Amino acid sequence: MIELHSWKTPNGHKVTMALEELGLDYRIHPIDIGKGQQFDPAFLSIAPNNRIPAIVDDDPADGGEAVALFESGAILLYLAQKAGALLPAEERSRLEATQWLFWQMAGLGPMMGQALHFRRFAPEPVPYAVDRYTAEIARLFRVLDRHLADRPFIAGGDYSVADIACYPWIVLHEWAGQSLDDFPELRRWFEAIRDRPATERAYAIDYVR
Description:
It is a single chain. By secondary structure, the chain is an alpha+beta fold. It folds into two domains: about 1-85, Glutaredoxin (3-Layer(aba) Sandwich); about 90-195, Up-down Bundle (Glutathione S-transferase Yfyf (Class Pi), Chain A, domain 2). It is built from eight helices and four strands; from the N terminus they run E-H-E-H-E-E-H-H-H-H-H-H. It has helices spanning about 10-20, 40-45, 70-85, 90-120, 125-145, 160-170, 185-195, 195-205; strands at about 1-5, 25-30, 55, 65-70. The protein has a four-stranded mixed β-sheet with strand order 2-1-3-4, covered by helices on one side. The longest helix has about 30 residues, at about 90-120. The protein is globular. The chain starts with a strand and ends in a 6-residue tail after the last helix.
């Protein structure tokens, strides 16, 4: 059983999307970040950076003690390797999936976070920051749009952790001042993932305790 400590954020949705795709048994422990539950000592014992998501796997592949992991990218790789899916079997395709997973973790996610903060949550307007991060999101969307021009998914023909990592951030495109009409390949990819049954199940989860 995977014990998932999470909340309904893009990084949280990554893990539920993967778990639903892989068919792994899991149980959600909601961590309401609006109430500061990410600072609870019990949560910090498995997620010292006080960020969701985090997991505890009570049945790791090596048969040893439970495995605790934080950082959504690390969790996606762990779950994919555990289940033997969502990572291409062919070496070069697997490398491509991994590099785009890192692209999301280092670029798309942090830049979207900054864009959303300054566009929606900053206590006072900061036009320079709004313009800077909105433009950077447009650039990143163009990068992914170009990459998807000759392939159904990010790593080619295989749906992978790279797609799962990116999708929940693209969900928030309007909040970041973007229209998918400007990125036709990205829109086609987005709609295909949106309509997957596992994605629908992941987004339907009720996190209320």
